[in-house]
Amino acid sequence: MIEFKDVSKRFGHTVALDNFDITFAKGKITGLFGPNGSGKSTSMKMIAGLNRPDKGEVTLGGLQPQESKISIAYLPEIDYFYPWMTIKQAAGFLQAFYADWDEAKYKDLLGFLRLEEGMKIAKISKGQRAKAKLLLTVSRRAPYLLMDEPLSGIDVLTREEIINTLIRDYREGEQTIIFSTHEIAEIESLVDDVVFIEAGQVKLAGSAEDLRINKGMSLLEIMKEEFRNAN
Amino acid sequence: MQFNTSQPIYKQIINDYKKLLIRKELKKGDKIMSQREYAEMASVNPNTVQRAYREMENMNLVETLRGQGTFISVSDEQLDEIKTEMARDLINHFIGEMQSLGFGDKDIINIVQTQLSDREGGSF
Lengths: 231, 124
Fold this sequence. Notes:
The complex is a heterodimer.
Chain A: E1 2-11, E2 14-24, E3 29-33, H1 40-47, E4 55-60, E5 72-75, H2 87-97, H3 103-112, H4 126-138, E6 144-148, H5 156-169, E7 176-180, E8 193-198, E9 201-207, H6 208-215, H7 219-230
Parallel strand pairs in A: 3-7, 3-8, 5-6, 6-7
Antiparallel strand pairs in A: 1-2, 1-4, 8-9
Chain B: H1 9-22, E1 31-32, H2 35-42, H3 46-58, E2 62-65, E3 69-72, H4 76-100, H5 105-120
Antiparallel strand pairs in B: 1-3, 2-3
Helix pairs in contact in B: 1-3, 2-3
């Protein structure tokens, strides 16, 4: 379980999170949706312990993010690996750092995603790089998996492969996954719960199936309605 | 598999199985896909599949045998009920749409009869 208790964060004059108050359930896949600059990346970084709240508190299973780093696999929106590295070198790097690295899973996913260990991260296509990032993130058996825009700028077929990888790999009940994206239509059937965020606040949150039952709309339609009403 | 994302997905999974039963593509005693296989095949959240399977167990459509898998366990009476229920849902949907277009009961019956006899004549 990941809890935000009335968290606020500013960067200069910009309010990134404004009394953001939400619980991400253990063992579920939650989609974090919202427009650019709504606070998605800031909240993910906060869970990963890469920035701290000005006010309020973030906890993971009762622990501070800084105490939980080894339990978190975080896929940031930016490319974080050294470009001169091959996939194999980057994997070796992570393997040395994290005890939960699963070599068998890594080899299996490598084949499934049609990647090769000798590929240089700087030299591969954008789609392959996205798959490599995913491979390196989910090859750890981390209880918390945070993915910031893993589908952004990726072609439809690769998006499908990424989504199928997540489903194939997901361990029911054990893993808590947060996934942020603009491509809401693509992950309608992937998420248990959804959180719509706007201007650093929770706009709407709940179970995806309950929202469909109550509103008779898809998540995409619900999001459009929510954000249209706001403007 | 394509889901209608404005409807709950677990219900669509159950309805898919009901259709397979009505069409006799699945019969009592047949083994169905494991939850994980279904999730991967349909690209759907494993928790959603779990909810659908659990509900089908509660409805006695399927039973899960430890270590062996999930099997169709529907009775003949139940199958008849499901068939009637599905037909009723389809008809009610149709009637509702027709009424919203202003068709009265007699018009609806007439148009259904005309269409049915056209089809029998092989003109569709």
